[in-house]
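Morning!

This is the sequence you dropped in the shared folder:
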Amino acid sequence: MKVLAIVFLMSFSVLAQVDFKTVSADSGLALSDAFGIGTAQPVKRSVIGIEIPSGFNGDSLSFQAKNSGSSTWFNVFNQGVQVAFPASASRFIILDSDLLVNMDSLKIRSGTYTDPDSLTADINYRVKIFELK
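The structure's back. Tokens below.
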């Protein structure tokens, strides 16, 4: 148990907050506007939290991503499983810092790629971006 506590504390010492971005999503759509997290090497940046506003009407969040030079958006998977989280209005979701590392551009989806939830109001997510050292 003591070893686990030490590892947990050490993991927080390698993160430094870089940015808090506001990301818009329009009524009638499931996908947000695109946003970048900054990918200048050798710095690694990751989305580690998303603030969900009160107007959100979905039941989960998932993501699309693309790399620079590409015009194609891809649904985000990790080891064959779509990266998705249960979600509801007025919540802050904490993400594993390894899931969305150094993606050039991201979009947040209300729902999943197989079952998107169209928003009933214009909303703004707040996305917390950290630098991994």
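Headline: DSSP finds one helix and ten strands in the chain.

More detail when I'm at my desk.
O.
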